[in-house]
């Protein structure tokens, strides 16, 4: 899907939105965990956070939590798979996000939190009878949107703007009346919307219905600015690349996600390009894909010397719904020779899939990109160099998980966090790290000696592992 935004629509171009922290409760294998994304060691323009830890320790839970945020801010339905992400020992999971919203004249702190739970999907009850399975879905509830302001004594105060933890529309009452006044019809319409969004696994606060009511009726400019800031951030500036994208690459499909701007318009979105043969894309998307790839080639040639990507136009065709589409094929241009891009390594495909977003993160201070397993298939030296450049010279926010420890030696120590073995305190920063310490060696030493307040690794025994391999081999399969 591609979203177009005309130049005149960039009413909030002067503001910058950053995720400052995330708190996760009872989500996947995280009973509780808080991650602060601010680098407290040194002031950088870029905001980078790399999360490290052993398998199954809560790294992907962070990326999933950010994906849930994007779905909520965009008013999209949360897929039913997230119902199974709620910790098995609880009935619901809660996620809280703190943002910094910067305008030239003032800076606001903004909080958004919500809970999710698994409920029976009544609309799928008929299908469940034939499969003997109980159909379930996700329900978003207890949403709260708050912001901070300075009180008369110059102290920062946190105040809710919309708190849905009530059977009524929302509280505080004064802020609700700011929106609907004494109009009972508007009130009832929004109350129906609140119930409908629950039934359809959507956010009420960032539903199109409530956003439109604010645009039409809200007389408080500050309230509208703050809600609109996060709404636009979710639609145009927050990007999440999860492990499903990596899986698509292994199936010879390239997910190309981008944010591209020229003199007259902006395009935000993505396309899936089949590499097994000609890929079919909407006709009006062809020029965007071509320009995005030209833009990427500027950097790609430096990352992989001698390599460029090209787009071959194989002509137009008509789709089943009667629309005109373009047939295209991606090719590699290496040493003046053309070969289909499908024959490139998965590492090259991974770099190309993510490269345009990394370019945007480098240049745009209000873009956040979260990537799971950023190191997958990428040569470790190149990975370290890219992250070093983005962290030192970039402007945007990059959040990533990785198994490769090379970045621990190339980027500032304040950009790195680790998972622990304690589900109730899942994320930590290493303490007592000196400026001269090699963070990679320091981390290895802590695995052996356990010098942190929380254990970062469940120890393994080489003898027991070898014995288990031998015992497994003695079993007839």
Provide the descriptors you would attach to this structure in a database record.
12 helices; 477 residues; 32% helix; six-stranded antiparallel beta sheet; single chain; alpha+beta; 2 domains; Rossmann fold; six-stranded mixed beta sheet
Describe the secondary-structure layout.
Elements: E1 2-6, E2 16-27, E3 30-36, E4 47-52, H1 59-73, E5 92-102, E6 107-120, H2 125-131, E7 136-150, E8 156-163, H3 173-180, H4 184-199, H5 208-217, H6 221-237, E9 238-241, H7 243-250, E10 253-261, E11 265-274, E12 279-282, H8 286-303, E13 307-318, E14 324-334, E15 337-340, H9 346-363, E16 368-371, H10 380-393, E17 397-401, E18 416-419, E19 427-428, H11 439-449, H12 462-474
Parallel strand pairs: 4-17, 4-18, 9-16, 16-17
Antiparallel strand pairs: 1-11, 2-3, 2-5, 5-6, 6-7, 7-8, 10-11, 12-14, 13-14, 14-15, 18-19
Helix pairs in contact: 1-6, 8-9
From the alpha-carbon coordinates, what is the Rg to the nearest angstrom?
Answer: 24 Å
Gap from first CA to last CA: 46 Å
Unreliable stretches covering 5 or more consecutive residues: none
Tally of contiguous helical segments = 12
Let me know the average pLDDT: 87
The count of domains is 2
**Helical proportion?**
25-40%
Number of DSSP strand runs = 19
Report on the biggest sheet. 6 strands, antiparallel
Q: What is the CATH architecture annotation of the largest domain?
A: 3-Layer(aba) Sandwich
Q: What structural class is derived from the secondary structure elements?
A: alpha+beta
Instruction: Write down the CATH topology of the largest domain.
Output: Rossmann fold
Broad CATH class of the largest domain? Alpha Beta
Tell me, briefly, the overall form.
globular
Question: Widest sheet: strand order?
Answer: 3-2-5-6-7-8
Indicate the proportion of strand residues.
25-35%
């Amino acid at each position: 899907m591609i979203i177009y935004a005309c130049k005149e629509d960039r009413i909030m171009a002067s503001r910058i939105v950053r995720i400052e922290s995330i708190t996760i409760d009872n989500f996947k294998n995280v009973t509780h965990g808080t991650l602060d994304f601010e680098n407290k060691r040194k002031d950088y323009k870029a905001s980078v956070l790399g999360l490290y830890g052993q398998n199954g320790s809560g790294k992907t839970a962070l990326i999933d939590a950010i994906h849930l945020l994007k779905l909520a801010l965009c008013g999209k339905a949360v897929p039913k798979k997230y119902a199974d992400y709620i910790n098995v020992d609880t009935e619901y999971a809660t996620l809280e996000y703190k943002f910094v919203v910067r305008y030239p004249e003032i800076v606001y702190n903004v909080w958004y939190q919500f809970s999710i739970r698994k409920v029976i999907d009544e609309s799928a009850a008929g299908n469940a009878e034939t499969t003997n399975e109980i159909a379930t879905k996700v329900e978003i509830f207890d949403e709260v949107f708050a912001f901070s302001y300075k009180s008369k004594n110059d102290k920062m105060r946190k105040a809710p703007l919309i708190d849905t933890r009530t059977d009524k529309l929302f509280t505080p009452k004064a802020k609700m009346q700011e929106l609907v006044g004494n109009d009972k019809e508007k009130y009832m319409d929004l109350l129906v919307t609140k119930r409908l969004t629950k039934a359809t696994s959507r956010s009420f606060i960032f539903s199109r219905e409530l956003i439109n009511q604010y645009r039409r009726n809200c007389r408080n400019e500050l309230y509208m600015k703050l809600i609109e800031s996060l709404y636009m951030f979710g639609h145009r500036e927050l990007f999440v690349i999860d492990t499903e994208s990596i899986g698509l690459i292994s199936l010879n499909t390239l997910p190309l996600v981008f944010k591209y701007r020229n003199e007259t318009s902006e395009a935000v979105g993505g396309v899936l390009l089949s590499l097994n043969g000609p890929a079919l894309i909407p006709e009006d998307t062809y020029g965007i894909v071509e320009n995005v790839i030209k833009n990427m080639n500027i950097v790609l040639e430096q990352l992989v010397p001698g390599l460029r990507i090209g787009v071959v136009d194989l002509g137009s065709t008509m789709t089943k719904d009667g629309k005109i589409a373009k047939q295209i094929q991606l090719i590699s241009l290496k040493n003046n020779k053309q070969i289909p891009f499908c024959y490139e390594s998965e590492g090259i495909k991974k770099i190309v899939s993510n490269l345009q977003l990394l370019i945007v993160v480098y240049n745009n201070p209000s873009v956040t990109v979260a990537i799971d397993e950023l190191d997958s298939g990428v040569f470790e030296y190149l990975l370290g160099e890219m992250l070093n450049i983005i962290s030192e010279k970039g402007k945007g926010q990059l959040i990533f998980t990785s198994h490769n420890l090379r970045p621990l030696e190339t980027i500032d120590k304040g950009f790195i966090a680790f998972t622990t073995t304690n589900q109730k305190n899942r994320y930590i920063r290493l303490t007592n790290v000196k400026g001269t310490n090699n963070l990679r060696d320091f981390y290895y030493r802590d695995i052996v000696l356990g010098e942190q307040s929380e254990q970062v690794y469940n120890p393994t025994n080489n003898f027991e592992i070898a014995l288990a391999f031998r015992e497994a081999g003695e079993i007839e399969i």
